[in-house]
Design a protein that fits this description.
56% helix, alpha+beta, 16% strand, two-stranded antiparallel ribbon
Length: 411
């Protein structure tokens, strides 16, 4: 019997019991949907998040009072909360200790929830309002579009000047240049001396809703005791990056007044370390989704085997008639294998479609680029094929092995 004819008969047999076929497919669909949905979301977010995590410049590492958020749990929060703030005096001491080996030591502190106002125009109350020094551009991969950067005099004298992002420019100065204008940020007046080049969004946050003032002025206006500074350092080159980090840790310990043998009361991170931490989280999520999906697919495979065994029993007389008119064992075997394979692949295709739609929908909500995970889709179809053949083989062998005389007598 031609393969095409066998396939036509197999699909026709599935069409006789539409509800049963649909319910059997649903198990495969759920298993494939869960893994494809998670993998699509993780893959779509990975590029966006890794880009957002790469906020530090090349060969830059940063000291902070706290570690990254994913490293803080309820069990160790008190340990970090009790650490003393990194003060401006400590940051300056650190800069002095490092000035012979590095050129870039940036300090920054932020206060969220500010509003920028100019005349009748105002922004939303979520301006990223912070203080920094003249090395913010190198450390945070920023650039000046118009005007100028901070100078050492701006920092030393604590001048009331500000550099603003493009979203603030658009909202406050729709028809004029912002340079030289006095705006209020969090109720403090500052003269605009420059604007930053647009950076777009990261993690759904507008990076251009930004207002930076000299770090000394920021601490004076908002209370130095309320903030712990982040201190970023750029290694002169990748070749001596590790040596620079070792030197920097020693310098920060001296600046913080730690004695030999005392544990560091600060944390250090870089773009690579942040991306590595996110990668571990993403891999854990992916592994969890894979385990759950494997269990669901295994259960679905058992369901396919059960349905196919029921089908063999129901169609025993049909098999006997076909054999009595010349059907070979191979034809019977292929027909039942095609049925189980069709059920599995159909469920897999629907699961992939739903998983990609759900994953990309979530990615769009989080303002990440949509993707189609070709690799995972191909793997999903491969697994579904293996399930269809693997769990359908035994019922197919049972059908092919039926004795035609006994099958014709079956009632």
């Amino acid at each position: 019997m031609a393969i095409a004819e066998i396939l036509r008969m197999a699909l026709g047999s599935l069409g006789v019991h539409k509800l049963r076929s649909f319910l059997t497919m649903a198990g495969i669909t759920i298993g494939v949907f869960s893994v494809i949905g998670v993998m699509t979301t993780v893959s779509a977010l990975r590029g966006s998040i890794e880009s957002g995590l790469s906020f530090l410049g090349s060969d830059v590492f940063q000291f902070n009072k706290y570690p990254t958020g994913v490293q803080i749990t309820g069990n160790n929060w008190d340990k970090y909360r009790k650490r003393k703030n990194i003060t401006y005096a400590q940051a300056e001491r650190y800069r002095q200790l490092m000035e012979a080996s590095v050129d870039v030591v940036e300090m920054e502190a932020f206060k969220g929830g500010g509003t920028a106002i100019y005349g009748v125009h105002h922004t939303t109350p979520d301006v990223q309002y912070g203080g920094t020094n003249e090395h913010y551009l190198e450390a945070d991969q920023a650039a000046i579009e118009t005007g100028r950067n901070f100078t050492q005099d701006d920092i030393e004298l604590g001048r009331p000047v500000v550099i603003i992002g493009q979203t603030i420019v658009r909202l406050l100065f729709p028809a004029e240049s912002p340079l030289g204008k006095v705006i209020k940020v969090a109720d403090h007046p500052y003269t605009v001396i420059g604007t930053y080049l647009a950076k777009g969004t990261a993690f759904g946050n507008d990076q251009d809703l930004l207002a930076m003032v000299p770090i000394t002025r920021f601490l004076s206006d908002n209370g130095a005791d309320n903030f712990s500074l982040k201190v970023a350092t750029q290694s002169p080159s990748q070749l001596n990056y590790n040596d620079t980090v070792d030197h920097a840790v020693t310098a920060m310990r001296i600046a913080r007044g730690l004695k030999p043998g005392e544990e560091n009361d600060f944390d250090l991170y870089s773009n690579d370390s942040l991306i590595a931490i996110f990668g571990k989280v993403a891999d854990t999520v992916s592994a969890g989704a894979f385990v759950i999906s494997a269990i669901a697919l295994l259960a679905a495979g058992v369901g396919i085997m059960n349905i196919m065994l029921v089908s063999v029993t129901e169609r025993t007389k049909e098999i006997g008639i076909r054999k009595s008119v010349g059907a070979r064992k191979a034809s019977i075997l292929l027909q039942f294998l095609f049925e189980s394979l069709a059920l599995s692949l159909a469920g897999g295709v629907v699961g992939i479609a739903l998983g990609v739609a759900a994953g990309d929908g979530l990615a769009l909500m989080l303002k990440a680029d949509i993707i189609f995970p070709w690799g995972w889709a191909a793997a999903g179809l491969g697994v579904c094929s293996a399930i269809g053949i693997g769990f359908g083989l035994y019922p197919a062998i049972q059908a092919a092995a039926l004795d035609p005389i006994e099958a014709l007598r079956y009632e």
